[in-house]
Structures are given as C-alpha cells and as structure tokens.
Design a protein that fits this description.
Elements lengths: L2 H14 L3 E6 L2 E8 L2 E7 L26 E3 L1 E8 L4 E4 L15 E2 L4 E7 L2 E6 L4 E6 L6 E2 L4 E7 L1
Antiparallel strand pairs: 1-2, 2-3, 4-5, 5-12, 6-8, 6-11, 7-10, 8-9, 10-12
Length: 156
C-alpha cells in the first residue's frame, strides 16, 4: 500500500460517511475510524525490527523505505531533505544528546540527519546526497507533515 492508496481510502470514508473502514493487504493493514470532528488513522506494517545503536533510546525503530528523491530548492545547487511521513521531528537520538547534524556540518549519503517519530515508531531520516547542511527548517520536537522540508543541503 502506498500513500496515494491510503489517501484514496480516507477520501472514500469522507465521501461515503461510513464510520469505519479497515483494509488488509498482505502484512499491511489500514484502519480509518471516523468520529465527530476527529479521524483516527492506523497503519500497521510488518513486525518491527530491532533498533540501531544510534536510536537505542527509542527501541521501537523500524527501517524506513527510502525517502522520496531530494527536490531542488531555490538555488539549483541546493537540495531539500523532505519528510517521507507525518510525525514529530527530533534532531537527536534522545533528550539532551547532541544533534545528529547542525548547520555547517558536512554529510554523506546514508548519514542519519534526524528522527521523525510517527505512531510511536522512530524513523531515521538519512541524507541522500553528499554536501553541507545550510539550513535546518524545523525546530526540535515540532510536528512535520508529509513532504515538509527538514533540511537544505548544498551538494559537494
């Protein structure tokens, strides 16, 4: 199941007025519950895998699908690192720990830049390019939407 299929299901619930919809395809399960002015959306995937040492403070981490391709921002040279999911942005593995990266740091592909927590799962967001962090667009602990720019990187 991809994000566009889930969005279609949400729209179907809204259009039809049904109170609840649950769909399961293989190991993926989506449950959408509608009540009053709130909507609850639960997406369950394969069983979690043990967390890497960098996020040991967050034991429910699971591997993320690769982030969408980085998009060009303002200057053709700059690349936006975007959030592949809705969640809460964390600059470090635990409160009080040093951030994974800060403005001015040089990063390489595969290097962890931050964590986006979604539904109690800690998802590492990795750099797709080699370059220098020129801007952090989100404050630590702030909510982020799908596709929100988290960092701007100037490729080497």
């Amino acid at each position: 199941m991809n994000i566009s299929e889930i969005k279609e299901m949400i729209q179907a619930v809204v259009d039809s007025g049904v109170a609840e919809l649950e769909v399961q395809r293989g190991e993926n399960r989506v449950r959408i519950v509608r009540g009053g002015s709130q909507q609850e959306i639960i997406v369950a995937g394969p069983a979690p895998v043990s967390a890497p040492a960098a996020v040991a403070a967050h034991p429910t981490a699971i591997p993320m699908a690769p982030a969408p391709p980085a998009a060009v921002v303002d200057d053709e040279k700059n690349v936006a690192v975007k959030s592949p999911i809705v969640g809460t942005f964390y600059a470090s593995a635990s409160p009080g720990a040093a951030p994974f990266v800060k403005v001015g740091d040089v990063v390489r592909p595969g290097q962890v830049l931050c964590i986006v927590e979604s539904m109690k799962l800690m998802n590492e967001i990795e750099s797709e390019v080699s370059g220098t962090i020129i801007a952090q667009m989100v404050e630590n602990g702030a909510p982020v939407e799908y596709g929100a720019t988290l960092f701007t990187v100037r490729p080497n």
